[in-house]
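Example 1000.
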Amino acid sequence: KPAVGGGSNAPRTAGGSRLDAGRRSPVVSPIVRRIAREHGFDASQLDGSGPDHLVMRRDVESFISDELGSATAPAATSAAPLARST
Amino acid sequence: MSEQNFDIVVLGGGSAGYAAAIRAVELGLTAAVIEKDKLGGTCLHRGCIPTKALLHAAEVAEVSKDAAKYGIKAAFDGIDMSGVAAYREGIVSSKWKGLQGLLKARGIPVIEGEGRLVAANAVQVGDDRYVGKNIVLATGSYSKSLPGLDIGGRVITSEHALELDFVPKKVAVLGGGVIGVEFASVWRSFGAEVTIIEALPHLVPNEDESVSKQLERAFRKRGIEYSLGVRFQSVTQNDQGVVVTLENGQTYEAELLLVAVGRGPVTENLGYEEVGVTLDRGFVPTNERLETNVPGIYAVGDIVPGLQLAHRSYQQGIFVAEEIAGLSPIIVEDVNIPKITYCEPEIASVGYTEAKAAEKFGADQVSAFDYNLAGNGKSSILGTTGSVKVVRVNDGPIVGVHIIAGRAGELIAEAQLAVNWEAYPEDIAPFIHAHPTQGEAFGEAVLKLAGKPLHAI
Amino acid sequence: MSEQNFDIVVLGGGSAGYAAAIRAVELGLTAAVIEKDKLGGTCLHRGCIPTKALLHAAEVAEVSKDAAKYGIKAAFDGIDMSGVAAYREGIVSSKWKGLQGLLKARGIPVIEGEGRLVAANAVQVGDDRYVGKNIVLATGSYSKSLPGLDIGGRVITSEHALELDFVPKKVAVLGGGVIGVEFASVWRSFGAEVTIIEALPHLVPNEDESVSKQLERAFRKRGIEYSLGVRFQSVTQNDQGVVVTLENGQTYEAELLLVAVGRGPVTENLGYEEVGVTLDRGFVPTNERLETNVPGIYAVGDIVPGLQLAHRSYQQGIFVAEEIAGLSPIIVEDVNIPKITYCEPEIASVGYTEAKAAEKFGADQVSAFDYNLAGNGKSSILGTTGSVKVVRVNDGPIVGVHIIAGRAGELIAEAQLAVNWEAYPEDIAPFIHAHPTQGEAFGEAVLKLAGKPLHAI
Ligand SMILES: Cc1cc2nc3c(=O)[nH]c(=O)nc-3n(C[C@H](O)[C@H](O)[C@H](O)COP(=O)(O)OP(=O)(O)OC[C@H]3O[C@@H](n4cnc5c(N)ncnc54)[C@H](O)[C@@H]3O)c2cc1C
Ligand SMILES: Cc1cc2nc3c(=O)[nH]c(=O)nc-3n(C[C@H](O)[C@H](O)[C@H](O)COP(=O)(O)OP(=O)(O)OC[C@H]3O[C@@H](n4cnc5c(N)ncnc54)[C@H](O)[C@@H]3O)c2cc1C
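Predicted structure in complex with flavin-adenine dinucleotide:
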């Protein structure tokens, strides 16, 4: 069994993390970042359930369903992919 | 007797070691690399690069033999092993030169000599002592054998196999893992009769079973023989060749026996245990941030239990430098690291096999679709067959991708991002792959899993 | 005189049309496809597939010629054009059979015959009327010429060029875009002398300028001649060949002239204007949801202004079916659709060129890094050179990727995801590409843009 790792894709419960404006959790998936952005918050303000607080998709999705009371669709079907004006 | 001080002293200048040093100096740290042989290590000199040169020569041979199928008149006339060697050596030496230049430009001293860990913060090379605020162990691996199976004469390892100046008429390969099937593939293309002996029930036993089975079929068609599920017992050799005996009494005669049963860690007699570093069957266990049980001593690359791959070594080297610099890099689990086997047809995979995904997430929680390349235009044009299997969690992310096909290796990059970024098939579906590419097969499998197949039912 | 009713009537059975029909029936709608020639259209019968077969035959020829470099003894002995034709036709006919089976299995009627739009909700074929709640126009494109340049005799288009049963000794190609450079590349590999005539200052003028320049260098090395920046004036032909004259008086003699100056929309005399569909220089303008000015009439594929690519056609076909079904699919802008040019070396790109990105985001807001494949092990092994350029917005996403190299086509799939998902280089950086692959070059460029180059300075 490799020394690194901890089953990041497992549907572990994400545990009701709240937004914290002072927090800077790591986010590495642009999809995860976008789902959060489309729901009006910054994913890095969640306390991620991945290794080292990495914000996983499940964290964003459970925040949305628990706190915002809406279901998430896969990111791409929810909106046009870009508003590319910087 | 001199002493020099660095932020990081790296023992071993292979993929893992030099990557750590490069990243360290980028972050403003000082680093030195201690290397007893050649910078670049196994991968550059005895591993990835020279084997892939042989495999490309094998591909050229196959293309030449098959040219008429495509309307090209070409007469294949055998292998010129000195030409193959010149090509292989040319690639290795130019990459080696480039790598040396890279470290030089970065101002990283590469200390020639055999190092020994003499304290939790020091490596000794001859009379000289290199003291580091942190130590990175990166001493790599060597070709293992089995108990009672002596390497020598006609019983060889991959190091020797790489440098053979002739094509054996008949060769036996012990081990149907990556290295075994790659050499089997090369030798077959070069005209040898090849038999692979694998104790487990399948070739490439770490891959998804459907991939193993397809490889077995493809190898059988290519005339590569194999024995599966029966263990090796013994080998004898004389002037004429070797005789390999399996536990069931079956024997195989050949000119040579390649032993490709795995790679062991290079950790013996290097002072590791004396300084207090715990070893586990020779490997160096670490925490998930690659630190050993001795604070300040890290381990990277093939000596760390898990996948033995050059890009994992790079990743771990970079990770450790960033960790020491306080950057808290993210962890990439072994399962999410892509693996390529460069035999013909190639195999590429990332994430969980279908069986492992079912185990992990529950069989009723996962779906898989295996897109047959018979439906893929570009693969037909290339004359290759195979499939792309995508495994998803239902209403969840893609957790595994398993490909077998000529040129499959390049197709795994996209899958690596999908798996590591937790993409759902629905996220990828709107972005139709360029036509005609082999990558479309991944697209078709994904479309199917998203409930909207295009060129599939 | 019969009348049949469907949810969707699709006029034209090319990539765009059949994709719309397939997606429609998946969504529970009824659909029919009207096709006057062969299901599959340009791409399958006269475009993507047969050209890529020729290009692969060309690759086989090159490999055979170069075999000695890799230590393989092979004597190249010319091209057997009837063998090439058999190979090409074999691929096309097997894909055609597969496609017919696919629509049949889906229960989609394919009506043979020339259709004409006769009402906002009806297409007429002979005596039969096909009424649709929605109509999808998908009549595709044809090879254009220039004013005063007549096709015929030794002045040919790609349709004719595909089917040539000989290799011309000397050939002129008018147009240095995708189709022109692909045929130039094939013919050169088959032994012809080739000259490309392009009015714009560069070959493949829609690509990043650095890619165009590298292609020009590579073509020059291959002995492909070209004239850039001077316009075609006239051509004369006789029994011996053609003489092409440019506006500056320069003349070129050749056996044949291939006219590859673009593709025009097939929209004339099909009833479009009579029913009120607005045309713009023959193309069918639509809103961003692909509906024409007539409600209920949609247009997809090459007749819609923009990129003319098979996978854009698939995407638009799927999009329109989903739109009609009320699914509100996401829009993919043309700039984010990958493009591949399959000449040798191949070109693949997605997103903005460096120049366009500078225009759009401000020159000081973008950074680019062009990783030279001289540093990429797998490319050296394959004997190919080139580069991978990645363009990012500073502190922002990757907005363009531009690749030139042998086998570049497969490398764009990953870039397509990165660009469409607005990935930052920092998002990709932790996931080190499998070694040794050509895809590592994209990884290296990304690492550099993330401020942490590995095999680069
Ligand atoms: C035949 C073969 C093919 C392979 N193909 C691939 C492939 O295609 N893709 C892939 O990803 N991986 C491949 N691998 C695996 C890859 O080569 C290894 O994973 C990688 O080289 C591990 O890197 P490392 O830095 O941990 O160790 P190594 O590359 O083994 O480097 C360790 C270095 O440490 C030096 N060293 C050891 N002890 C000392 C000491 N006491 N003092 C000083 N220096 C010391 C050694 O000389 C060596 O240079 C292949 C391996 C083999 C054998
Ligand atoms: C030489 C060449 C190479 C190409 N290579 C590539 C490539 O590698 N990759 C790529 O992505 N693209 C490539 N293309 C472009 C690609 O072929 C087109 O983008 C694609 O075929 C467009 O699809 P479509 O459905 O819009 O039109 P088409 O494929 O042209 O299909 C239109 C169909 O409508 C039918 N039709 C027209 N009028 C009527 C009517 N009145 N009644 C009934 N049927 C009618 C036609 O017979 C035809 O079958 C290439 C094109 C050419 C010419």
